[in-house]
Specification:
- By secondary structure, the protein is of the alpha/beta class.
- α4 crosses α5.
- Strands 1-3-2-4-5-9 form a six-stranded mixed beta sheet. The protein has a three-stranded parallel beta sheet with strand order 7-6-8, with helices on both faces.
- The radius of gyration is 19 Å and the shape is elongated.
- The relative contact order is 0.18.
- The longest helix has 17 residues.
Length: about 260
């Protein structure tokens, strides 16, 4: 799957009701950065459109305006990639000039949830796969964000199974090949590979732009699909200005419900 000129990479169904169905409370899109290296499969997993740049927001902003509902943008990450969050906020400052209500929601996942999921995979490595090591893989973000991932893995390992655990970054040190070699030298016989970002495997036939390895996704698709609908819900209700999102424009006036 290749990226289009509009920066809209994947189109899900979560924020696009059927023509005969009720109007949504908001039009929701995911804003992908370095932590979402495969936007197409992420859109399929969450049922929500994924955009990769400001231009991709335009058709969704127009649709939100035509429906009289706000546009909610959720950074597609685990809270490590602060640059992408900033870019999403800047894009919404531009979008707010249209007069349509726009809301920046919190990241799709946070550190606490990520660590809990890592622990789940560490337990499954032993109980389900019979493995003696786990390799967490992620696309590099920047040195500070990558260091944050090391901190999370360290916390997840602390009270989990007695396993050899390594972290590797695609595009930075330590590379996946180096990490696998280190595990081999440490005597690991069976290694389970787990993503530490929001990458999902591409389906057969998808283009290389969305290709990822066959490592197990950190989050279940159903969990992310549920998370899309919850973080910013309080912040997008007509007339409500608080809650989980940051409003960047006028919310629609409250009307009969």
């Amino acid at each position: 799957m290749t990226r289009s000129d509009s920066d809209t990479v994947g189109t899900g169904t979560g924020s696009t009701p059927a023509a005969s169905g009720p109007a949504p409370d908001a039009v929701t899109v995911l804003y992908a950065g370095a932590e979402a290296p495969a936007p197409g499969p992420l859109a399929e997993a969450t049922g929500t459109t994924v955009v990769t740049g400001p231009r991709g927001l335009s058709p969704h902003l127009e649709r939100a305006g035509s429906l009289g509902v706000p546009l909610v943008v959720i950074p597609a990450g685990t809270g490590r990639d602060l640059t992408s969050v900033t870019q999403a906020a800047q894009a919404l400052q531009w979008a707010a000039r249209s007069g349509t209500g726009v809301v920046l929601g919190p990241s799709l996942a946070d550190a606490t949830r990520s660590i809990a999921e890592m622990r789940r995979h560490l337990r499954a490595a032993v109980s389900v796969h019979g493995a003696d090591s786990v390799l967490f893989l992620a696309r590099t973000v920047d040195p500070f964000a990558d260091a944050e991932l090391l901190r999370r893995v360290r916390l997840a390992r602390q009270f989990s199974e007695d396993l050899e655990v390594e972290v590797a970054f695609e595009g930075a040190w330590p590379s996946p090949a180096k990490a696998r070699e280190r595990l081999r030298l440490l005597g690991a016989r069976e290694t389970v590979q787990v993503r530490a970002d929001l990458a999902f495997p591409a389906r057969a036939g998808d283009g290389a732009a969305d290709a990822t390895d066959d490592a197990t996704p950190l989050f279940r698709a159903s969990a992310l699909a549920t998370a899309v609908g919850h973080p910013a819900v309080p912040g997008v209700r007509p007339g409500h200005r608080g809650g989980g999102g940051v409003p960047y424009g006028p919310a629609p006036a409250a009307g009969p419900r």
